[in-house]
Amino acid sequence: MVERPGAGAALTVGRPLSEFSTNSSVGHCLAQRLRKVAGRSIDFMTKSRCANLVERYLRTRGRRYFRGQHDREYFFVASARPRRLHVHLEISPPHDDVLIIRVDPGCFFPAADRPWLAHFSDTWNRRDRHVTAIVHASCDPQRIGVVARRSQWIRDSVSFEDFASFVDRAIADATEFFGELSPVVELPTTTRTLLRDAG
Fold first, then answer.
1. Among the four 20, 29, 171, 178, which has the fewest Cβ within 10 Å?
2. DSSP string spanning 4-61?
3. Which are the contacts of 5, defined by CB distance < 8 A and separation ≥ 6?
4. Domain-located, residue 79
């Protein structure tokens, strides 16, 4: 597996669970319109190799998962300490051979904590781990989010074992990142400020 340059640009910010649906069927009217293009019957349901690998991974790992609004999105909840993590596996819309993994804690942080969260994420990212930690804005200006993510070009020749190992490592690193973040998050803001200034 080789990381495709610029693949990170295709990453998207996580969506709330309410936008996900377990119904991935195509409406009858829409399906008819799609098949009438240029008078030919086109099979839009053909899955990419990457999508097949993702679904096989989820089945073999025994994950109960949800599909997103589009067939290229998958979501499941991973049990981790001290809190559960939301794991999103998405095949990049413009490139069906690029897998995007996003893991977040399913909660937001006060916007006032942006400086230390950014510092914490930068420190993590300097370790050259399997996921990159990113602090991002939310629709509420008083809240910010943190996501651990990775994008990877999935070659046609990749074995299932290599694919599964890659996804496992990314999720394990994201779990470790949020595990290290949680004890710091639980400290009161004034304590965090004193600890940050002490060093």
1. 29
2. PTTGGGG------GGG--S--PPPHHHHHHHHTGGG----TTPPPHHHHHHHHHHHHT
3. none
4. yes
Q: What is the mean pLDDT of residues 25-45?
A: 41
Q: Is 109 among the domain residues?
A: yes
Decide: 67 and 164 in contact? Cβ < 8 Å. no
| pLDDT top residue among 181 and 101 | 101
Work out how many domains the chain is built from and give that number: 1
Residue-wise pLDDT for 152-179, tens only, equals 999 889 999 999 999 999 999 999 999 9
Q: Is residue 68 within a helix (H) or strand (E), and if so which, with residue range?
A: none
CATH number of residue 186's parent domain = 3.30.1460.70
Q: In a 3-state reduction of DSSP, which class is residue 178?
A: helix
Label residue 98 exposed, middle or buried (CB < 10 Å: 0-12, 13-18, 19+). buried
pLDDT of 90 strictly over 50: yes
Q: Please report whether residue 14 resides in a domain.
A: no
CB 149 within 8 A of CB 103: yes
Q: pLDDT (tens digit, 9 = 90+) per residue, 69-84?
A: 777 899 999 987 767 8
Residue 148 resides in a domain = yes
